[in-house]
Amino acid sequence: MAKYSIKDLEHLSGIKAHTLRIWEQRYSLIDPKRSDTNIRFYSQSDLKLILNVSLLKANGHKISKIAKMSNEEMFEAVLSVTDNGSDFSDQIYALTLSMIDLDEQRFEKIISSNTLKFGFESTMLNIIYPFLSKIGIMWMTDAINPAQEHFISHLIRQKLIVAIDGQYATLETGAKRCMLFLPEGELHEISLLFANYLMRSRKHKTAYLGQNMPFNDLKMAFNLYKPNYLMTIITTRNPNISPQAYLENLSTEFPDIPILVSGSQVIGQDLNVSDNVILVANPKHLISFIEGSID
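User: That's the sequence. What structure does it adopt?
Assistant: Structure tokens below.
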């Protein structure tokens, strides 16, 4: 069973620990348990409750009224907010709850409704990406377990693959060509899949090599495809090779084309990169590069 401190609840919900303690005393909103060593902790049900309360309070519900709601009434109120609201933060909260509950139907409804309202690209940029950042925080604080993270990542990956398939079109002969890959040992491909989608939606040709690509195989594929640029993402700390060394190797092997690189092991790490290595801080930066390279 997952256990959370009051600081965890504060961090994940945005509600100050002091306020949570007041709500405990005044409304008996949550009931902390105690460990064998008498340390207070909260359950996953408490976390879900506080996330719901935070969402409702942000949408004008008074805490005194929320505290009197039954579980069914709160559930209906939350559904009403997330189904009818256009605030991206509301949708991120709803996705968080669907992940905690392993609720695929709720996930599908959130993504489908927002894609209809805003389009797939905007849904990715304004809802999915901030949500993934939130997952990263939850992972570091042990607020979610691997099964929950795998569940939601798999669903997002499925959506991306369907969206990429929908971008198929006969491209002009002079279309830019990009080869996308992840280095050996790198398995987190959601950002790379989204990059593939962004390129294809802007009529670039892509060769998607995917995860865990050995360097020698990359060189062979490069000689076959002859891309105009490469893209890779480094998010996993690899004890066998440093990002600095890997980027130097890429630049030496492919000196005549731009090499786009992103990921937490690269961005903000004060690496020394060659002129043809372009650090991509976020998807909007990537979009600027793609659109600027069409002509």
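The longest strand covers residues 205-213.
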